[in-house]
Amino acid sequence: QQQVKQSPQSLIVQKGGISIINCAYENTAFDYFPWYQQFPGKGPALLIAIRPDVSEKKEGRFTISFNKSAKQFSLHIMDSQPGDSATYFCAADYIIQGAQKLVFGQGTRLTINP
Amino acid sequence: KAGVTQTPRYLIKTRGQQVTLSCSPISGHRSVSWYQQTPGQGLQFLFEYFSETQRNKGNFPGRFSGRQFSNSRSEMNVSTLELGDSALYLCASSVGTEAFFGQGTRLTVV
Description:
The complex is a heterodimer.
Chain A: E1 4-7, E2 10-14, E3 19-25, E4 33-38, E5 45-50, E6 56-59, E7 62-67, E8 72-77, E9 86-96, E10 99-104, E11 108-113
Parallel strand pairs in A: 2-11
Antiparallel strand pairs in A: 1-3, 3-8, 4-5, 4-9, 6-7, 7-8, 9-10, 9-11
Chain B: E1 5-7, E2 10-13, E3 19-24, E4 31-38, E5 42-50, E6 53-57, E7 64-68, E8 74-78, E9 87-95, E10 98-101, E11 105-109
Parallel strand pairs in B: 2-11
Antiparallel strand pairs in B: 1-3, 3-8, 4-5, 4-9, 5-6, 7-8, 9-10, 9-11
């Protein structure tokens, strides 16, 4: 119930295309849904995040779509660029015993072909 | 503003040994969390410290332990190392909901 399921595991998109990564969760206690981007040799970095009272959030070429009833959320990267090639993790955050706990999806390795 | 600093960056240990990893959080951040990252299991939560107290713990054996000092710096210790402990260990400091990760310590157990 504390898992976040992410798909696909890997994704190849042509430059200029739309990259879409999907995540699903079960625990309705989750109240914050961030996406992290990780380049090789680096730690994950926060890309964009959303709360469940909002259905969509857009920052530049990155958009999160959130479907509370379906318990699903997705990341859309518009006009994908080779520099977007990285591993993307969705996550869900909830409070347990007064402390926040992040649960991560398994990650998606995105490759943008030039 | 300096980011999260983890030392060392790389470490090679032998089975049965113990290891200590260090994490210096962003100045002013009192919460420090540790994660294990492996290709097969992804990012798994180890534990979280806040003001020197462990507030939360993941599903890892007792060989994995940690502590936090009064200056918020944190250490993670793994005793009796096993081959399966080879991983990237990430530390994250946070204030509010946003977590900032260090570059990690790559531990290889041989």
